[in-house]
Amino acid sequence: MKVLHILDSLNRGGAEILALDVCRNAKKNGLDLSFAATGGGALEDDFKNSGVDFYRLQRRLPLDASLVLSLRKIIKTQKIRVVHTHQAVEALHAFFAVRGTGAKLVLSFHGYIPDAKNRRALKFLIPRTAANISVSREFLKWLAEKENFETSRNFHVVYNGVDEKRLSPTGKDFRAELGLLPDVLLFGMIGNFYAAPRKDQLTVCRALPEFFSKAENAHFIFAGGAEENSDFEKCREFCRENKIAERVHFVGARGDVADILSVLDAFVLSTRHESFGIAAVEAMLTKVPLVLSDIEPLLEVSRNGEFAAIFQTGNAADLVEKLIKIANNEDFRNDLAKRAYVYAKKNFSIEAHLENLKMLYNSI
User: Fold this and answer.
1) Is residue 153 domain-shared with residue 178, that is, in the same domain?
2) How far is 354 from 360, CA to CA, in rounded Å?
3) Which residue range(s) make up the domain with 125?
4) Dist CA 161 CA 351 (whole Å)
5) Type and span of the H or E element at 332
6) What is the pTM for the complete model shown?
7) Do both 8 and 144 map to the same domain?
């Protein structure tokens, strides 16, 4: 069975990284895959070298008839059976391109819907696809309750997958970059500071003074870019006012996530909104113990807290308690990390994701 994946742009993001992992692992996992991009981006060369047939197209209009014809030509000449899209814009073009070809259309829902135009397009597409995919059960519930999408018919839950090879460290000494001794306990969070404070780094900062008073050799890092009007400066000012700035490191947006994860003693994710929790899964697959907020998607990823320490979302005092428990008990840290790794390997690896995709494709 020949499958075509389509993305409208190749900028670095969650859907793009997942699609790249799928391309790199498709052949050895028995998936005959081609990939089409209707726009460029930072990851274009990575996709070209990913090991699948790559088609670089260009969308020039919101609904581009020439693009529909180009996609249709690929579908017919390559005998494509399934066309898998990841956003409303490419799904709409694919909907017209597959008509009369016998190919089936699949649409993945990765995150929150940005605007009314996309909502209208998705409401049109949902009943007209062969299958729609949600990245978690809780996100599927959100799509039904908050977006009023009809999810009872042709929706399926397929968890995202992470390519463990992508998480291999390069050997760079991140602790040395920060000037930290080997015995320093290093906790951290990787996530951008958004204008809407959905990652909630400020709650983490509010927990750190008490945590540091009881874990005297601990430091904390925040890795991620900062949008305008985010809590970034509030976090830095809080750390300065509470005289912990020398133990809290704001390292900005980084491309060396694997090197950072490899030296963390624990990973904290304080997010208030998430569709899946890919950052948590990456930490699990790096054997780093987790401290997670108790939002439903993170409870789902951690099997209701079986594989993570869970704190009440936005509750700094509860977070302090969980951080101290992790810091003071090395055996607990190691056991939590080992069990989480086994669970993530079985359920959230790129191999598990591809196996679930193949079953879905065959079913339609």
Assistant:
1) no
2) 10
3) 2-163+349-363
4) 7
5) helix 330-347
6) 0.88
7) yes
